[in-house]
Amino acid sequence: MCGITGWIDFGRDLRAASAAIASMTATMSCRGPDAEGTWIGPHAALGHRRLAVIDLENGTQPMLDDPDRDPTAVITYSGEVYNFQELRDELAARGHRFRTRSDTEVVLRGYLEWGEGLPERLVGMFAFAVWDNRDQRLLLVRDRLGVKPLYYYPTPRGVLFGSEPKAILAHPEARAQLGTTGLQELMTWVNTPGQAIFEGMRSVLPGHVLRFDRTSTSETAYWRLPATAHHDDRATTVETVRRLLRRAVAGQTVADVPLCSLLSGGLDSSTVTAYAAEALAERGEGPLRSFAVGFSRPGIPGQDPAEDASFAAKLAATVGTAHETITLNAADLTDPAARLAVLRARDLPLGLADMDTSLYLLFRTVRRHSTVALSGEGADELFGGYPWFHDHGATTADTFPWMHHSAPIDVSGPSFLDPDLPRRLALDDYRADRYAEAVREVPALDGENELDARMRRVSHLFLTRFMPMLLERKDRMSMAVGLEVRVPFCDHRLVEYVFNVPWSTKSFDGREKSLLRAAVAGTVPGFVLDRRKTPYPAIVDPAYDQAMRQKLGDLMADSNAPVRPLMEQSSARAAYALVEQAEPSQLQFLRLGFESLLRINDWMREYRVELL
User: Fold this and answer.
1) Which of 315, 323, 260, 330 is nearest to 292 (CA)?
2) Is 0.90 topped by the overall pTM?
3) Which fold has domain 234-396+467-529?
């Protein structure tokens, strides 16, 4: 896993402008702590920071097809291609010769052999850029599910790109500006594919190839979620899911560095951990290391965040992992250095309050022992694990299911921002337009009954709008400490199959994730299969909320706070009075709102954001 960046400019000779690409590359030292490289041609400058996972001694980038002459193509690549060995063998049979054992060289040689037909052959998570010297053309490519990020920023004479916005913003032509669309995205959390919040910046769409040359820019989808008829009976479906999932996990345990699993003791992480331990044992390797997060202060009975730690420890003992629980407290989560690290990692004020900080601190500790971690992200969206899937009102509502029966997740919290802002920004219309847009993307299947068509739509919304928020969060928090997190549930072959399984089969016994439970029964123990679903734990400690209340008070007293232009004073004072008078149990429910305000303010200050 790595960080990539680059600058294409058809109006100047970039060989005289090396400082800019060096600055852009340096911003991603956390994503790639092991090596740094740049390549500069007349109109293309590529940068790379490497986290060495495969072929540690070689595989440095940017990589040229022939380092001894003017290259045909140059690549800067981030990610993992899990079928690279099979592709390498096929390319070798076609006459290609390899200098390294890295998947990067396989991708580069694959481009020379198959051109833009390459991405559909790749199995994995990846984002890469190829500069084709023959055609003076840049290709930006992103994996099917958007596991790895890739941003771009068109300029009058070319384009800037990077794994993270910070790489682009390090260039003197890029500006950290927030316009109407950026505000609409921040205040609705609809997570429109391609939007990047910063004015003028975009994100490469998952499953897409973007081309830039001297005269044009074009975009092509090489993959979309397909709608296909499902003919397998339940027993065959269960067995197929078991086979696909076991293959996905086993394929992602290959690494030349220490590997571990992130284990909450829930169904998803336990499945990944059990299959990973099994794969290592079959190769005579192991034991697998596993890590859980817990909090030093117990919570409310029945909502104790320590529950995850106890289930994780029990699962670890059952499957034989070398397990460790990382215990955090309020002081850890309120530490200014940790909170700033989270903000800089995200580049944006989006987030989940203390849960982002605890995830970052978990990853920071895990990185001391492992370079690669396996995670259960994606199972809830794929198999129907969230309560919304089982709420008829949510699945039939004329909006995103996760916005039903509650106010949409909103940075304004308890009315800290100008109450007229939603009207001026037309937030209701924006949300409705984005929902209609998302529904139009859902593939239709002829002859499908109303229930299955409705649940196909719900599943598509979660996979294309909700899951990307969580994948981006995990990528940023992990790469901020140089940890590669792999997500087997996002293997596109598994996703394609399960997406097309009828809802009656996915939920055949009336429980969430019925199909997944059936597929892993016999591998995952009963105490996990029978456990009720619990979300990622939030800290339950009055000391934390009191510290955040103090930070909010400091903001309210700061007349120069960058977020002030978005606030209406009387409403903000009334909202602050609500927080100031709230009981500790009430503060937990207000937390996301006022912490969002704090984060927006910190973000605007740290990034010197200009309001347009």
Assistant:
1) 323
2) yes
3) Rossmann fold (3.40.50)
